[in-house]
């Protein structure tokens, strides 16, 4: 039997874009015309006066504006509770305008050189040292990137992620795909002490050294603090190529630092266009006109919703490619807001998949939900729907009206926006014109600023994460790491005091 034929399908535009990027053909991201047709926007029509308890009024939001403007100016002027120890943690604010073309060129030249030598690249890290890279690669490339041949990947190596969990089966399965391949890795950890990252790194480092001897050191990148920490020391000792996580930028705000840029350049994503998106949104988000500033409006809406009793923010998208971006938001917001019993739980969702699962809860369950949609307006590809003679499923009307999957994809957000609003769920939509690095850069900066503002509004520091440190310390103790004996004893005594309750 012959293989499946793709009927009425054009060439895959995502692949075509990737091939162009591989040839270093850039989009005209610096032009006014490009910026005008590629501006993301925030639609808050469905935020106000949803029926039922916990409704948000426009007057309520307007009354919050003076507070929002106050913290907006404090943030701009680096005032407030924004230190980690004695370091001011707002380095991400001006980073878009500080990155130089030379720096981007250096990164590209390193990654191009190594990409040409290897079949696969493994990015090792967790939290902010992982999620932004994965989200951006998935947002902008083919969803089965590693299964494509190299030409269709625009010459980029296969891209893998490790160190973001401690599942030996997952680790082993990934190794199966790396076996026999020439591999480069980038280990990313600001602290240099994160257990998951360190263990994944150790294993790969060991395999690479045993496979290639001294050559391995040319294929190992380290991205860490400029001067301190175990990884910095190791990079110096072993002469690894190293990149820097600035000490005034926390992990979840670091996608525009070398943390993100190296992995993105390795996947042929245009990092200059990415920076241009950040820069563009920075100008907008520093603006003082509340209703023209999506970061301020987004922060005010979320804060009003939280005050009105909303506990969960469903971040739903109509694009599989943007689902990981919703996951990036799941990391950015709760890790920044979750202090002192405050903050919204972010639940990333792919619609319409989740409409057939938690969609029931959103429509009719407890009214403690806010929704933020990430609506991709223009997908890379068009998929037409064929007509049938018998029209048994009744869908020929779509064909007769010339409508395709792209049209329906949009309604997958517009439909729930209307229905959920009437079910008592206020919602807002971030409209994202296209799958490109510019739009992603804009979105990331908008959200970084939004969560910084909402952290201030909640009355605490959005740039520290003592809760995450608490788990790290308990885990160090439980695995017997020297220096954590005291906590280990506390855990043991605690467990002795409590009776284990196991069922059955
Ligand atoms: O945002 C954060 O600070 C965290 O999510 C960190 O990025 C994460 O815990 C990983 O830390 P590190 O880079 O030190 O390994």
Which secondary-structure class do the elements indicate?
alpha/beta
The CATH homologous superfamily of the largest domain: Glucose-6-phosphate isomerase like protein, domain 1
Low-confidence stretches: none
The ligands bound in this entry are: 5-phosphoarabinonic acid
Q: What can be said about the biggest beta sheet?
A: 5 strands, mixed
Whole-number total of structural domains: 2
Mean pLDDT across every amino acid position? 96
Dominant shape: globular
Note the total helix count.
19
What is the end-to-end distance?
Answer: 53 Å
Could you please describe the fold and organization of this structure?
Helices cover 47% and strands 12% of the residues. It is an alpha/beta fold. The protein has 2 domains: 205 residues, 3-Layer(aba) Sandwich (Rossmann fold); 180 residues, Rossmann fold, CATH 3.40.50.10490. The strands form 3 sheets. A 5-stranded mixed sheet has the order 1-12-11-9-10, sandwiched between helices. The protein has a 5-stranded parallel sheet with strand order 5-4-6-7-8, sandwiched between helices. Helix 3 crosses helix 17, helix 11 crosses helix 17 and helix 13 packs parallel to helix 17. The longest helix is centred in the last third of the chain and has 22 residues. The model has no long low-confidence stretch (mean pLDDT 96). The protein binds 5-phosphoarabinonic acid. 5-phosphoarabinonic acid binds next to loops.
Which features would summarize this protein structure in a list?
alpha/beta, 5-stranded mixed beta sheet, single chain, 47% helix, binds 5-phosphoarabinonic acid, 2 domains
